[in-house]
């Protein structure tokens, strides 16, 4: 791989600690453990929220790229919403699962929307990194 960019982030204290981006500082926040995982549900973010934000942003970029390559106007208000779940496998190991809901407001043809979302899943770096490692569900949201 020829590196284009490297982000550096440091977390102290694990899930109850503090995360900060090292080079330029836009991430500088406390972390909290959700009540569902035995925490106090404090005012901080958690790794699943970070992962969801990062994955949905990256996937959205892939959606834009695919749409542009196929001359499809997806609309400026398109979005990708990530639902990141953490659970246990049959072996009692922790595991992630992700649902990506993609809304393309200017795409009225379901088959066109599905092609864009599926192709984005093929090229998105986060999708490629998680392929065959976690369950990913892709949903295309349509206006009724």
From TrEMBL:
One GO BP annotation of this record: response to oxidative stress
Highest rank taxon of the organism: Bacteria
Pfam family, one: OsmC
InterPro entries: KH_dom-like_a/b (IPR015946), OHR (IPR019953), OsmC/Ohr_fam (IPR003718), OsmC/Ohrsf (IPR036102)
Family named by the database record: Belongs to the OsmC/Ohr family.
NCBIfam families, per the entry: organ_hyd_perox
PANTHER family found in the cross-reference section: ORGANIC HYDROPEROXIDE RESISTANCE PROTEIN-LIKE
The protein's name: Organic hydroperoxide resistance protein
Native source species: Mesohalobacter halotolerans
């Amino acid at each position: 791989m020829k590196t284009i960019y490297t982000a550096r982030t440091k977390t102290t204290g694990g899930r109850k600690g503090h995360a900060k981006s090292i080079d330029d500082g836009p991430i500088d926040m406390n972390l909290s453990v959700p009540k569902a995982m035995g925490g106090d549900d404090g005012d901080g973010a958690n790794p699943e929220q970070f992962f969801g934000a990062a994955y949905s942003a990256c996937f959205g970029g892939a959606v834009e790229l695919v749409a542009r390559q196929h001359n499809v106007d997806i609309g400026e208000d398109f979005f990708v919403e990530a639902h990141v779940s953490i659970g246990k496998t049959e072996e009692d190991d922790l595991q992630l699962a992700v649902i990506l809901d993609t809304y393309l407001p200017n795409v009225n043809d379901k088959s066109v929307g599905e092609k864009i979302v599926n192709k984005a899943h093929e090229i998105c770096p986060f999708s490629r990194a998680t392929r065959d490692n976690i369950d990913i569900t892709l949903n295309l949201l349509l206006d009724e």
